[in-house]
Amino acid sequence: xxxxxxxEVCHNLDENANRxxxxxxxxxxxxxxxxxxxxxxxxxxxxxxxxxWLLALVESALDGVVTMDDKGRIIDFNPAAEKIFxxxxxxxxxxxxxDMIIPKSLRKAHESGLARFLSTGEEKIIGRRVEVRAMxxxxxxxxxxxxxxxxxxxxxxxxxxxxxDISRQKQ
Length: 171
Hints:
With 171 residues, the protein is α+β, with helices and mostly antiparallel strands. The protein has six helices and seven strands; from the N terminus they run ββαββααααβββα.
């Protein structure tokens, strides 16, 4: 991880959409930071602006952005993901990624890969662009390009997948 970038994620209830959103990106130019140190008013304003910027960025992204916790549950599902998969975010938040967007034939591989990463840290797809098969709400399977990142904001890792439907390119 980059020492100059400190990412802090919290889950706030978005009252308008009644769903969790990732928020509070804090940029810190120092290589060390005392997490218990109180931040100044300018730092708090910077955090608020960064949170709004992050939300706008994720909500307006052309690619689907699906955020998953270490239990495999969806914690955020942006509008592009809604369009790609055919679910409204309220239908998937809190549900298992494997049940909602991964074809049945690939679910065990996904679950064992997550378990392997959590126990050993072994990364097979994290940080790489990969082609996968994904599943829509109507159960149809389609080719997708995916890039996954992980980070550990507090205690448990969070995974963010950027997903693009490449059905047209494959025809």
